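quick one before i forget lol
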Amino acid sequence: MYRAQAIVFRRMNVMKKLPWVLIPLLLTGCAHKTETYEICNMSLTVCQKQTTVLKETVKKFKTRGGALVLINMGDKTVLNAVSVSKHKNYDYIQDYLYRPKNISPWLHHKGRANPQQLIADYVDFVQSTDDETLRKLRLNVVKGNARKLYMKDVKASGLTSTDYKSAKSKEIVTTFVGHFATANQQYALLTLLDEPKGLDSTFCFNSSG
């Protein structure tokens, strides 16, 4: 189903990689350098689409950056891992650490975590938990904080989390970690945004839900 590809884009400057975007960025007064790091082990077209969505989301919510990790729950293979950052030489998948509070009661996680650790813990948790907990994860998408993810034809489950970056910080990180099934395959997904800003469409709320 997926091509055996392992394409790693490290320390890639979008302005250098895609020079045709320079003029519109300059015209809008938004010529920010954005670092993009990606691991792709699936269709390159799908990986590129997911990278584009993450970049657009980071820009839309005026965040410092974000990450997306998609894995096959069967063999825990990383299918796509993308980091978009406005920091120089910074990878949210590898470098970003924070202490999640809302997710930790579910995952029994201790200490600080990065996106890769969180999704690995989530997969282990889902594969070992009881039916009642799985039902709650599903209900969170059907009618809970993650209900914007509800799709009739795809059974998704998971948790949203909005956490302060530190005890003294007013800035937040928003996370969704969950899993879904399609075409007889089970996948786990994590998305993360660093310091998102509220929009009119979100009634100025910047929380994960």
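fyi DSSP finds seven helices and seven strands in the chain.
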